[in-house]
Amino acid sequence: IVLDGIDHFGSNIEIIGAARGNIVRNLKVTWGSHGFGVGEAAFTNTQSINLRGTNNRVERCEIAWGAHTGVHVAGDGNTIEDCIIHDFNYVGSYSAPILMRAGKNSTVHQSTIYNGGRDLIQSVNQNSVISYNDMHHSNLINDDCGPFYTCCG
Q1: pTM here?
Q2: Are 81 and 63 in contact (CB under 8 A)?
C-alpha cells in the first residue's frame, strides 16, 4: 500500500501487525498525537504515525504538532527518510518526535527533527542506524535528555 500526497489533520496513521512493504510518502500529518497527560511509566502510546510491521517506509513527509510522539518506530527494518518532524511532546513525557522502541534494524536518515519537549529521537532499537539528520531545539521543557536519547540496555 502506498499513501502519497494526502494531508492529515487531527488523525493518525496506523501501520501495524504484519504490515509489510508499505510506503507513506509526501504527506503532511498535523495534530495526529493529541492527548492528555501520560500513562503508565510516563508513556502515552499516542503517535501521529505508528510504524510497525516489517520493511515499511515514511519518506518526504512533514509530521508536525502533537502532545506526544510524532513517529513510533517498532518492528523490523522500518525506515524514516527525508522527513521534517517537529513540535512534539509538549507534555514532557518519554514520548519524542521519533520514538524507536520494540524493534530492530530501523533507519532514520536525512531528516530534520526539531522542537521536542524532551529528546528528539529516543532509540532502544537494536542494530538501528540514525544518520545525516539535522536535529535542533530539544529539551524545551525537561532536563536529563538531549537531541538523541538511548537507555535500557
Answers
A1: 0.92
A2: no
